[in-house]
Structures are given as structure tokens and as C-alpha cells.
């Protein structure tokens, strides 16, 4: 059994703030249940939910019990027994003191001699600093160990982020603070560094001598679905690119760390981001979806301002000005209401040039983050027969086909377990956050001011009509991409490839 410890002491009392909300119901508490049923929580754990909603333990359990999946007989009931609820305000000392009494009661029950407290803030950002202050003043274990976990968004630009983080660090030390970006808990994202540095032929090919361009893509097949008013405060760039896709970019482009310790990894990520200049307006394409295929447009949502310039799609070209990556465009694409749902990294290599081989599709290395985690390389291979011609083929590895004896954990399971153990490598450090906001803030202010306009695209399409032109000007070559399919040969049939 793996136990979360500091100096050999068990972390036994996670408190979930905002326990009545969707994040806690759909992600945080189900993740804790998965850790519980896999025996990855300390045996004597007690989980306390806290929110403004007035309800008892039974009502609290009813909020999230249906989201507890895959448990064996009795496991769900055993988990619910260790979950209690305390109602209270987010801005009143007496409410937090009541929470503290419940925590102390649980610590006494389990015989905890040295308090080990984890506060998970599944809360909207407008109450982050208020709740952090209330916890520090009233629930902080002076003779024990304390950790606070906070969710994005961490501000709306560099200035608001620095203001929020400045208030937070007056109260909580950096080593006590865990800033979650749930993409850092995804199996394929965690695999990036290991795959790069454990395989010399992969790492040797990641440089500006061989790579022409890189696309990091996030696509959702649904729109804002009634959450347009909330989404309009942030937009797709703040929601996806500034955090999730930039984290993927930094892992893909960083240099080899001295060790795989949290600080060595995060040091290298910061070095990369310091070499990424602020995004220029000419390197941007933004869009907003319109009604099509029986689906409403973004502005058909009554909560969205009719003059909104908020992008629901964005394609951005970023440049990493390090010796390894100088001159290679990184195209970060993200959008809602698109033709499919997927997240992937697509590395496209340079043309062979003139000579023996001309007009053949480029080699590519693709890391599919979701759905169906996989890694595949597109190469050119001789077509069987009497003539010397080439056909594009794939060398592929799919997790669900080759890793059937292994279970890929949900991102929140991984991150909560890391927080319990005090492992920071999959969490965002303050200087890393500042550098990321520096890259995006001028662009975001230009969009907010209406200086860059959205191009309409239909619900269910690939995005704005000018998308192909946009990515084409950065060198992306679609030859062989759309028409490729596995050749229908007897070998393919025996391998189940058709």
C-alpha cells in the first residue's frame, strides 16, 4: 500500500472545499474513491466536505454517489462512511472554526499525533484568496503539515495572476501550494518526458534540423452548452491554450533535466518559457461558432452578450527561441463545436528535398493524448509489387490494444495522490505561471479590446475556413493526410487492420 507521507507521518484528513459543486462531484470525490478502492489512500483517512449549501451527510453522499464507478460490492458504502460534510460560509471565521473542530475530531478518532491536512479548493477563483485566508487563520495545523490545492483559472492575465498569487503566498508557502493543471496528470502527458529521454532515436529527432513544424491540438465536438455566460469571461485561449497546451509545449521542448526531481523538471520548463516571445497578432486566427446541423450558435445562448468578441476557437503560432528549436513554429489549436473530440501532438518532419524522392508525404510522429491514447509514426514504405513506388504507412502503438494488463488512471487520481505524497513535479510553480501569462497577455488584451476579430465557423466543422491557409503558412503539409488508410492486404486482414 502506498501512503501519503511527510517525514513518515500519514496524511489522513483531506478537506474538499466547494464539496457541493460540479468539480467535487464529478472529479475530486470520485478520484478519492478510486484511490480508496485501490488502497492508495492512508488506511485511516477521513474525508471532509465543506461548502455553503446546508445539508447533512446523507444528502452530501447523494450528491456524488452516482459518480463513484468501478467499485466492488461494499466499497462504495465503505467509502461513504469516511466522508462527512460541514456546511459553512467562505468568509466567516466562525464557520472555518467549525470546520477545524470537525477536522480535529477526525484526527482524534484516528489517533493522529501530528496533524496532516490537505485542503482541496474545488472553488471558483473569486473566492480563492478569501478561503485561503480563512483556512490559514482558522484551520492551519501549526505543529503539523499543511497543503493547499488550487484549481485554474489563476487570474485572467499576468497582472491579475500576480495579484492572486501574491495574496496567496502571503499566507501559504510555495512548498505547501499545489496549483493543478489536470493535463499534467494525463497518462500520455506524463509519458512525454519518459518517452523522450529513454529513447535516443526519439530525442535525437526533436530539433530544428529535422522538424519542420509542430501542432498541438485540442478539439471538442460540443459547444458551451448553457455555460456561455461563464465561458465568455475567459474564452478558449485562457481556458485551454495558456495552461493545458502550453504545459504540453514546455514538456516537449525542454532540455534534459539533471534529475527527474520536481524542481529540476520545473526549472527546465521555466527556461523554455523564458525563450518564448509574446504572441504577435499576425500569428493568430480566432473564431466563433455559428448555428449549423441543428445546433445553436455561440451567441444564441441568452447568457452571451450579442456583441461578444470572445473566441471559441483559436490557432496560435508560438516560437521557442532556443538553439534546439529556433525557427520551428508551434501551432496551438483549440476549439469548441468542432467535427470531433481529440487532443494530440503532431510533429511533422522536413521534406527529403530534391533527388531520389519527391512529392511524397512527410514523416510525422503523433502522440494522441485522447481519446484512445496512442503513439504512431507515419513513414513512407515501398508498396509491394514490381514497381518502386512508395505508400504512407503507420508504425503504431495503442494503449488499449497493447497495455491490456494495465489501468490508466484518471488525471485527478494521479494529481491528488501526488499532492498527498508532496510530489510537486506535476504541479505548476509560480514563476512558470508568470512566464506563461507573459506570453499570452498582450494577445488577450488585444482580443478583449476588439483589435482582433473572430471569423465565423459552423458548428461541427474543422474551424474557420481560413484554417488551412493559416497552418499552411507555417509549413504544415497535408499531402497524404486525408486520403491515407491502411492498405487492404491479406497481412492487414490477419492483423485486424481493416
Automatic annotation (TrEMBL):
Source organism per UniProt: Jaminaea rosea
One function term, GO molecular function aspect: glucose-6-phosphate dehydrogenase activity
Highest taxon, organism lineage: Eukaryota
Recorded family membership: Belongs to the glucose-6-phosphate dehydrogenase family.
Gene3D superfamilies to which the protein is assigned, alphabetical: Dihydrodipicolinate Reductase, domain 2, NAD(P)-binding Rossmann-like Domain
Residue span(s) of domain Glucose-6-phosphate dehydrogenase C-terminal: 194-476
Role description: Catalyzes the rate-limiting step of the oxidative pentose-phosphate pathway, which represents a route for the dissimilation of carbohydrates besides glycolysis.
Protein name: Glucose-6-phosphate 1-dehydrogenase
Coiled-coil regions listed in the entry: none
Keyword Oxidoreductase: yes
Any single biological process term in GO: glucose metabolic process
Amino acid at each position: 500500500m502506498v501512503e501519503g507521507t511527510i517525514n513518515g507521518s500519514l496524511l489522513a484528513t483531506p478537506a474538499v472545499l466547494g464539496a457541493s459543486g460540479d468539480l467535487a462531484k464529478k472529479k475530486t470525490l470520485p478520484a478519492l474513491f478510486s484511490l480508496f478502492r485501490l488502497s492508495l489512500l492512508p488506511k485511516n483517512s477521513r474525508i471532509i466536505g465543506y461548502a455553503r449549501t446546508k445539508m447533512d451527510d446523507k444528502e452530501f453522499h447523494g450528491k456524488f454517489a452516482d459518480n463513484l464507478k468501478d467499485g466492488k460490492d461494499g466499497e462504495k458504502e465503505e467509502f461513504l462512511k469516511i466522508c462527512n460534510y460541514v456546511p459553512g460560509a467562505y468568509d466567516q471565521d466562525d464557520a472555518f472554526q467549525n470546520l477545524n473542530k470537525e477536522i480535529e475530531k477526525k484526527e482524534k478518532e484516528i489517533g493522529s499525533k501530528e496533524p496532516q491536512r490537505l485542503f482541496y479548493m474545488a472553488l471558483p477563483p473569486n473566492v480563492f484568496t478569501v478561503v485561503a485566508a480563512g483556512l490559514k487563520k482558522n484551520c492551519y495545523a501549526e505543529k503539523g503539515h499543511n497543503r493547499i490545492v488550487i484549481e485554474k483559472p489563476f487570474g485572467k492575465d499576468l497582472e491579475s495572476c500576480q495579484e492572486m498569487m501574491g495574496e496567496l503566498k502571503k499566507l501559504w508557502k510555495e512548498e505547501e501550494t499545489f496549483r493543478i493543471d489536470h493535463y499534467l496528470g494525463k497518462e500520455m502527458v506524463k509519458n512525454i518526458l519518459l518517452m523522450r529521454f529513454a529513447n535516443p532515436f526519439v530525442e535525437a529527432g526533436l530539433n530544428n534540423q529535422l522538424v519542420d513544424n509542430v501542432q498541438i491540438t485540442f478539439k471538442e465536438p460540443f459547444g458551451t452548452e448553457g455555460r456561455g455566460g461563464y465561458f465568455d469571461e475567459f474564452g478558449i485561449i485562457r481556458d485551454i491554450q495558456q495552461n493545458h497546451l502550453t504545459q504540453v509545449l514546455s514538456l516537449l521542448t525542454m532540455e534534459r533535466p539533471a534529475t527527474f526531481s520536481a524542481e529540476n523538471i520545473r526549472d527546465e520548463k521555466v527556461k523554455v518559457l523564458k525563450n518564448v516571445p509574446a504572441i504577435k497578432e499576425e500569428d493568430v486566427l480566432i473564431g466563433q461558432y455559428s448555428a449549423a446541423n441543428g445546433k445553436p450558435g455561440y451567441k444564441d445562448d441568452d447568457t452571451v452578450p450579442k456583441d461578444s468578441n470572445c473566441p471559441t476557437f483559436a490557432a496560435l503560432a508560438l516560437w521557442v527561441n532556443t538553439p534546439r528549436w529556433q525557427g520551428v513554429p508551434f501551432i496551438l489549436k483549440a476549439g469548441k463545436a468542432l467535427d470531433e473530440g481529440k487532443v494530440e501532438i503532431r510533429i511533422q518532419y522536413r521534406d527529403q528535398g530534391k533527388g531520389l524522392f519527391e512529392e511524397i508525404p512527410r514523416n510525422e510522429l503523433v502522440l494522441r493524448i485522447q481519446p484512445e491514447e496512442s503513439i504512431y509514426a507515419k513513414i513512407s514504405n515501398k508498396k509491394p509489387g514490381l514497381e518502386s513506388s512508395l505508400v504512407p504507412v503507420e508504425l503504431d502503438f495503442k494503449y488499449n490494444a497493447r497495455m491490456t494488463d494495465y489501468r490508466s488512471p484518471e488525471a485527478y487520481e494521479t494529481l491528488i495522490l501526488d499532492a498527498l505524497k508532496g510530489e510537486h513535479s506535476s504541479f505548476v510553480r509560480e514563476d512558470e505561471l508568470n512566464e506563461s501569462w507573459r506570453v499570452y497577455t498582450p494577445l488577450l488584451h488585444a482580443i478583449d479590446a476588439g483589435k482582433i476579430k473572430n471569423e465565423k465557423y459552423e458548428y461541427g466543422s474543422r474551424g474557420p475556413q481560413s484554417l488551412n491557409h493559416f497552418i499552411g503558412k507555417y509549413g504544415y503539409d497535408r499531402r497524404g493526410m486525408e486520403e491515407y488508410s491502411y492498405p487492404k492486404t491479406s497481412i492487414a486482414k490477419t492483423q485486424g487492420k481493416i
